Amino acid sequence: MRVSPRARRMALRLHPAVDSVELVLPAGASLAVALGFLDGKRGWIAAQVARMPPRLPFVDGATIPVLGQGRELVLHELDRGRRPVFRLTQTQIEVTGDTGSLARRTRTGLAELARGMLADKTRTLARRLDKTVARVSVGDPHSRWGSCASSGNIRYSWRLILAPEPIMDYVVAHEVAHLAEMNHSQHFWRLVADLDPGHDQARAWLKRNGPQLLRYG
Q1: What is the rounded CA–CA span in Å between residue 167 and residue 138?
Q2: Rounded Cα gap, residues 204 and 210, in angstroms
Q3: What does the alpha-carbon distance between residue 158 and residue 54 come to, in Å, rounded to a whole number?
Q4: What's the pTM?
Q5: CB neighbours of 200 closer than 8 A, spacing ≥ 6?
Q6: Phi then psi for 159, rounded to 5 degrees?
Q7: Which residues on adjacent β-strands are paired with residue 24?
């Protein structure tokens, strides 16, 4: 349950990444009314949960997409005295370590791969707008694929590395356009279209398939 000063009415949000339902309340909302609202939405919640894609954990032998291409996650035991390795081949994600650290090492490796690609793409597009990016980072937000601060810091979801590359390109174009327009005006969307002519298809793909990306790991 979260009180938002920007909310005008009560709303429910499903967060597939953490298996939770968030109830957003406007300031001053009555707790009793909020709980009544929630009780009336139990059927909707159950229906949404039933439609949620299954979780796909990072375990040895799992198929994980990297830029949309499925690869087998393979665990190799770490030889004594050697450093851990995260490596991509054409068909596999190779991770050294033990079973207990496999999921963590996989997330870390994928996140670092995502950060490098996203940083390069972000700075390349920013130069087209004659804008400067202060910092590019990645995290694991529950409801955003990217965000741009007025300071010029841009942050992305590391899970974009799981999607086909055109999807990553769209999100980068979206956030870079915010360096010039901190809104979603018609001018903003024209900038997005200039930076990524295929943004409409990518946006639709992300809406359809985004929940599945949130279920990995």
Answers
A1: 16
A2: 10
A3: 20
A4: 0.86
A5: none
A6: -70, -10
A7: 2, 11
d(CA 38, CA 50): 18
Terminal CA-to-CA distance of the chain, rounded, Å? 25
Cα dihedral 72, 77, 81, 86 in deg (nearest 10): 10
pLDDT classification of 142: cutoffs 50, 70, 90? confident
pLDDT tens-place string over residues 148-198: 999 999 999 999 999 999 999 999 999 999 999 999 999 999 999 999 999
Handedness of CA 130, 131, 135, 141 (dihedral sign): negative
* Tokens coding 36: 């009544």
CB 74 within 8 A of CB 59: no
Question: What are the C-alpha distances in Å from 107 to residues 172, 183, 210?
Answer: 21, 32, 17
The radius of gyration computed from the CA coordinates of the chain, to the nearest angstrom, equals 20
Cβ contacts of 93 within 8 Å, gap of 6 or more: 64, 66, 71, 72, 73, 74, 86, 87, 106, 109, 110
